[in-house]
Amino acid sequence: MTAPDCEEFIVSDGYRLRGRVWHPEDQRARVTLVILHGIQSHSGWYEASCRQLCEQGARIYFFDRRGSGLNAQQRGHAAHWRRLVQDVVQLLSQIRFRQKQQKQTAPVVLQGMSWGAKLAAVVAAERPELIDGLALLYPGIKAKVKATAVQQMQLSLAERLGIRDKRVPIPLSDPALFTADPHWQKWIQEDPLALHEVSVAFLLANRELDRRVDGAATRIECPVFCQLAEQDQIIDNLATEAYFSRIRSDQKTLITYPEARHTLEFEPNREQLTADYINWLNDFVSSAKIC
Predict the structure, then answer these.
(1) What proportion of the chain, given as a percentage, has pLDDT over 70?
(2) Do 123 and 91 touch, CB atoms closer than 8 A?
(3) What is the 8-class DSSP label of residue 69?
């Protein structure tokens, strides 16, 4: 059984990102995955799929977002949307540099799940030279759960008043939004590392990412893979499909699972769902043109 290493990655402002890294047993990766998790989750939610991916030759870098999961410092906070983007850019740049130094040719896929897909899409549009492919799993690019007009006005007022550190609850308190499985609902409810509040500054960063992700579609040219859960209560699938159709790439694959609810990791047939992703990765690796 492939177990992850717990590692740290220090970004330019000195923040120590902690996370889980999976290395193939023979240390020769066929593909490198950099994974971004959702707003409430962390890398610990996805150990089963990461293990399955690693056993098929993927090297996986899954660092928890600053203030999330294993990162206790400044819980739920991000000073600016650029800071969130820069954290990912620095990690990708380091991976590219290391690959060049070691003369490795494994393509790099940026994988974003739920909220993390929003950040992944913006990074893919802004720094296309750092990745070879993009995977958007139940992406939080177009959400059903979103701020009301009144809440948006309150956020704008807080911005004008310079209120940035105040904590606001994440509107995803019901585990049934993520999965229909009672076991996993209980697991999510009791998860000590799950994030339940974010700062006003994080919400402002999120709002700017929402603005930028909409225009990112026409600038994403690399191969793209997308998985949707038809019973998703968090994601607006119709709007997401429309967004997916606007992505500029001519190499796009979208799969929708009729019985699934948001977090595919908690579905009873998750191994098959991950196998579909692995099949896409195998095809992608076979035809990838490495930068």
Answers:
(1) 98
(2) no
(3) T
pLDDT per residue as tens digits for the range 180-219? 999 999 999 999 999 999 999 999 999 999 999 999 999 9
Assess if residue 23 is contained within a domain.
yes
Write out the DSSP string of 77-124.
Answer: --S-HHHHHHHHHHHHHHHHHHHHHHT----EEEEEETHHHHHHHHHH
Does position 1 have pLDDT exceeding 70, yes or no? no
Residue 187 is assigned to a structural domain of this protein: yes
Residue 82 falls within a domain, yes or no?
yes
What's the distance, Cα to Cα, between the start and end of the chain in Å? Answer: 32
Domain assignment of residue 290, yes or no: no
Token code pair at residue 137: 């799993």
pLDDT, tens only, 242-288: 999 999 999 999 999 999 999 999 999 999 999 999 999 999 999 87
Tokens in use for 76?
């739920």
CATH of the domain at 33: 3.40.50.1820
Q: What percent of the chain has pLDDT over 90?
A: 86
Domain with 258 in it? 5-284
- Rounded (5°) CA angle 13-17-18: 160
| Residues 27, 21: Cα–Cα separation, whole Å | 12
Amino acid (one-letter) located at 112: G
Per-residue pLDDT at 41 = 98
Using CB atoms within 10 Å of the CB of residue 248, give its burial: 0 to 12 exposed, 13 to 18 middle, 19+ buried.
middle
* Domains contained in the chain, number: 1
- Copy the structure tokens of residue 18: 């902690």
